Amino acid sequence: MAADAAVQLLQQRGYHRRPSCPHQRPQRRAPYPALLTVSDDEFWEGVSPVEFGTLPALQDAVTVVGYPIGGDTISVTSGVVSRIQTLQYFLTSELLGLQIDAAINYGNSGGPAFNDRGKCVGIAFQKDTSDDTDNIGYVIPTPVITHFIKDYEKSGAYTGFPELGIKWQKMENPDLRKAMGMKPYQKGVYVKRVEPTTPASGCLQPSDIILSFDGVDIGNDGTVPFRHGERIGFSYLVSKKYTGDKALVKVMRDSEVHEFEITLATTKKLIPGHLKGMPPSYYIVAGFVFAAVSVPYLRSEYGKNYEYDAPAKFLAKHFHAMAESPDEQIVVISQVLAADINIGYEDISNSQVVSFDGQPVKNLKNLVTMVENCNNKFFKFGLEFGQIVILETKSSKAATQDILAAHCIPSSVSDDLKA
Fold this sequence. Notes:
7-stranded antiparallel β-sheet; 6-stranded antiparallel barrel; 9 helices; globular
């Protein structure tokens, strides 16, 4: 197993865990990063670790080993490295990735990719399933794997790959560069947005031109020098850092050049990718079930292909919206448990709650606090698209307990929201 090399490294440095890495497939999503262990030490006896190799070059031979669908025995496929670039990993940053033409099929994820010297150069994690391609697979290379391991060593937990916290666009168009006041020798990328919850928001601004990152000049196409004769997206430089590291960013603003030392951090997603092992939060009143939108929530509502089947209002927020504060959530009425108190509202589902009694809803806990402390005669919920829900306060609180009992629900609120 390719992960055994990481196991040996961790054991040598005092850890008795086995790592796994970020996975992605266009149609089937794989697990999140994790460090695992086995309770019985006998498991490790006779394990022969695989040695990690260096990043391969283009056209280097690779062999992918795994147990994909189609049989019960080991499968071996061969090919070459056809491209090295930054890829958007599932629910995380743009990271270094290898494109290979060896067949990778469902079930290959987590299997090692070996070079011609028998060293592991990466872990298979996804394939291109579009009709216009054939035998395009992707491998998590060893630099990403070792970053994951060292991250755990540095902090005792997986903190994630840091990001600069911006959205940017290329500046290849000469008129665009001229309008921005750039000199012929200046190159860089245009900052479209800065995420409010990241340290960069105190330094960078929309319309800034990022000229360099840690002293490395950025091209108008957003690439930087990589290896001899190669270029790669500048997010590669960011991904080599660790959470809390500092970076020197040179920008042009109003025709003047500035330098900022920015602390890198992971970004706060408006729709989080996972719940960090916690059960989902909920709140129920008068049969209305309130929940916060997350990727696990979307998957439970719309299936494994939620990125195609979920409503556009959620997908737009998932892919493009930024959290305005660290605790911001999208709160929805997930469903309505039918009862006399909510007649006429029973068809509401997955509608965002934007206000309560005229006050904006920041997150689920904020909504619970406002509803529980409400002394008005009526509950007034403002939903998206101007829809409203109005219920008598006293009757709603009284009906809630009967509705919970009818549906065998022990509590109107999840444990994490009780405090």
